[in-house]
């Protein structure tokens, strides 16, 4: 009888536990590129440069007898809030801040209304000479306020608006920059939406309020922040048009803190902090809308 062959010993057999699989390779950590590290370094340096003046202002305001002659310092011995108490005792800061807030809010609202309506007219309506008028309107951006101060003052005095809130607001009712920014935003809205609304019987006013305005909210927020900051920091026009202390704004109030021969810089810096904090909060809250508005309007 032929011999029975024994099974080969080199043939692998399955184990009861099942086949084993190799673990997946671990992903390698990418090393940051030198260009990216350089970009981060520039960003950090730029942030330090931008924040240092504000930090110096805060430190000087809490330094007893703080002065700017000795140069910047980051260490304070015996910090105190005495400068803020002197500031509140010297000037009616809450009334002054309320004046600035009221003027800034009213100026911002007027610029949004007039700017959005003018931008809609330039972007959607067709009329003779539209490009020429828009070009002339943009040309006013190249005319500084210092050139217009005397004619504006004579006009306000003739109208009886000197030393009034209306006189403060009159030059900031409209903004050429706001019209330009909002026009770019409206042109990014598809015209098919306007045509569909027109077929349904909507007027230009309804299209503007119910279709265009909701779609350009980021641009409106951007214009609002710029207008609020410009009005809050305005100094030259209030200095010319205001005479009574009850209409004084924050920049004028801070200017009165500087003496002819000596200046208490800790009190001045306390007033600067008092003026900077509200506008910084407004900017931080609207930062996302500013970035979105600039991105959607095509400004680079």
Q: Choose one word for the global shape.
A: flat
CATH H level, superfamily name of the largest domain? MetI-like
Query: What percentage of residues falls in helices of 4 or more residues?
Result: 55-70%
Are there runs of 5+ residues with pLDDT below 50, and where? Answer: 4-9
Number of strands: 0
Termini separation comes to 95 Å
Largest sheet: none
In CATH, the topology of the largest domain is named MetI-like fold
| Residue fraction in strands | under 5%
Instruction: Give me the oligomer status.
Output: single chain
| Name of the CATH architecture of the largest domain | Orthogonal Bundle
Please count the helical segments: 14
Strand/helix succession:
HHHHHHHHHHHHHH
Q: Please state the CA-atom Rg, rounded to the nearest Å.
A: 32 Å
Helix/strand class: mainly alpha
Q: Give the tally of structural domains.
A: 2
Structure characterization notes:
The protein has two domains: 38-83, no CATH class; 84-297, MetI-like (MetI-like fold, Orthogonal Bundle), CATH 1.10.3720. It is 64% helix and 0% strand. The protein is mainly alpha-helical and 300 residues long. It is flat.
């Amino acid at each position: 009888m032929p011999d029975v062959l024994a099974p080969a010993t080199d043939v692998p057999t399955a184990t009861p536990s099942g086949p084993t699989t190799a673990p997946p390779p671990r992903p390698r950590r990418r090393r940051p590129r030198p260009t990216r590290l350089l970009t981060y370094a520039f960003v950090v340096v730029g942030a330090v440069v931008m924040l240092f003046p504000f930090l110096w202002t805060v430190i000087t305001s809490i330094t007893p007898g703080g002065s700017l002659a000795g140069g910047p310092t980051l260490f304070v011995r015996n910090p105190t809030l005495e400068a803020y108490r002197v500031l509140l005792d010297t000037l009616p800061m809450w009334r002054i801040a309320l004046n600035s807030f009221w003027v800034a809010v009213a100026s911002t609202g007027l610029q949004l209304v007039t700017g959005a309506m003018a931008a809609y007219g330039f972007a959607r309506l067709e009329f003779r000479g539209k490009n020429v008028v828009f070009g002339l309107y943009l040309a006013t951006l190249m005319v500084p306020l210092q050139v217009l101060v005397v004619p504006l003052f004579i006009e306000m005095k003739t109208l009886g608006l000197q030393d009034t809130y209306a006189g403060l607001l009159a030059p900031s009712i409209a903004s050429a920059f706001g019209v330009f920014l909002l026009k770019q935003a409206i042109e990014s809205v598809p015209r098919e939406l306007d045509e569909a609304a027109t077929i349904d019987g909507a007027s230009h006013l309804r299209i503007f309020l119910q279709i265009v305005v909701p779609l350009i909210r980021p641009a409106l927020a951007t214009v609002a922040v710029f207008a609020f900051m410009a009005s809050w920091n305005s100094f030259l026009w209030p200095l010319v048009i205001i005479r009574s202390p009850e209409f004084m704004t924050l920049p004028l109030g801070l200017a009165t803190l500087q003496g002819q021969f000596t200046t208490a810089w800790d009190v001045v810096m306390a007033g600067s902090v008092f003026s900077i904090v509200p506008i910084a909060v407004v900017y931080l809250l609207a930062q996302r809308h500013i970035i979105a508005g600039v991105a959607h309007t095509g400004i680079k």
